[in-house]
Amino acid sequence: MALRRRGFVSVGAVIACCALSGCTAGPASTSAPSPTPAATTPTESQIERQMRLDYEAAEAAYRANRAEQARLYQAGGTTRATSVMRATSTDSYLRITLEALRRTQKAGWHATGMTEVVGAVAHSGWKENEVGLTSCEDSSVVRFVDRSGKDVTPSTNRRYVQALKVVKHSGHWKVSEAITAKVSSFEEQPCQV
Question: Between these two residues, 113 and 155, which has the higher pLDDT value?
Fold first, then answer.
């Protein structure tokens, strides 16, 4: 009986030693599940990934177009679409933007300041090769100055919510259409101010 007891103690000592040092007594069992955290983040599906990438690319095109518009307004307008404008916009959005830039040049005005995209750009619809974005734009800091240096900035409210349609043409996302609404504030708007 004493030998059995020593054998039991010896096995217990080996198990304790192995537990502390990380050794295993035999081959690892493949049926035991590995420990997982109680709450795991679900993996992104293929369609969710595509939607995310499309929204990111569409928003990048929109922001690049806004930056190019600001540059051109500050330069005094233009009569022709630049390569950046053609790469980031199309259809009615390009035509309307270009017309406003032509009027600015014809009047001899230039802008100071830049329109600010306020808050987050909201995602408002997705289908293959077309996404919807909603943006809040604050142009209240933009000033227009004529050739003599006189401030000719319109006195109207210049805060807008833009519902944008962005389409994919030949692998490139371009702002295609905008429905613009003037707002007095961005509270309760989709830009999450």
Answer: 113
Find all residues with CB under 8 Å of 15, minimum gap 6, and list them.
Answer: 25
* Burial of 16 (C-beta count, 10 Å sphere; 0-12/13-18/19+): exposed
> Which sign does the torsion angle of CA 27, 32, 38, 41 carry?
positive
**Cα end-to-end span (Å), the chain:** 79
Report the chain's mean pLDDT, rounded to a whole number.
84
* Percent of the chain residues past pLDDT 90, beyond the cut: 70
Q: Classify 121 as helix, strand or coil.
A: strand
Q: Considering only CA atoms, which of 72, 96, 75, 76 is closest in space to residue 84?
A: 72
CB 87 within 8 A of CB 62: no
Q: What is the mean pLDDT of residues 13-30?
A: 41
CATH fold for domain 46-182: Nuclear Transport Factor 2; Chain: A, (3.10.450)
The answer to whether 160 and 152 have CB atoms below 8 angstroms apart is: no
| pLDDT tens-digit map of 62-95 | 999 999 999 999 999 999 999 999 999 999 999 9
Q: What is the distance between the alpha carbons of residues 176 and 165, in angstroms, rounded to a whole number?
A: 6
